[in-house]
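Technical appendix A lists one of the benchmark inputs used to test multi-chain prediction within the project. The record comprises two sequence entries:
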Amino acid sequence: MKARVTVTLKAGVLDPQGQAIEGSLKSLGFAGVASVRQGKVFDLVLDGTDEAAARSALNSMCEKLLANTVIENYAVEISN
Amino acid sequence: MKARVTVTLKAGVLDPQGQAIEGSLKSLGFAGVASVRQGKVFDLVLDGTDEAAARSALNSMCEKLLANTVIENYAVEISN
């Protein structure tokens, strides 16, 4: 089973990396970029076929390791 | 207009960061994780409402700055 976990900064959390990318895009001539925020994506391959169990394990992985839930949100998508 | 750019390593490119996460997940007791690969996600807000122009600009941003197309793939999603 394949899963994608997307971890993004919560609204209001400063993102200097995103701001640097925004500045670089502007200096490359891309006008009209109002904001850039960077996040992380994890593509996992899991053994087993029980989607509910996988979703529960993935949420637990996010809480324990993949995301810092103080400042980050996470989203889990499962594709078979 | 909002856009999400997802940048992932091409198949075959070594991902030591993903391997480290996979090892950490296993040592935290998550069995059944067959593989982890890490990528990046960029959430952009763009001025303007022309979706075709935005898509073209985003592809150009990926080619020039956001992705290293030698080793990375990118995907662009636009949501209004």
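The two ends of chain A are 5 Å apart (CA to CA). The first strand of chain A starts at residue 2 and ends at 9. Comparable benchmark entries are summarised in Table A2.
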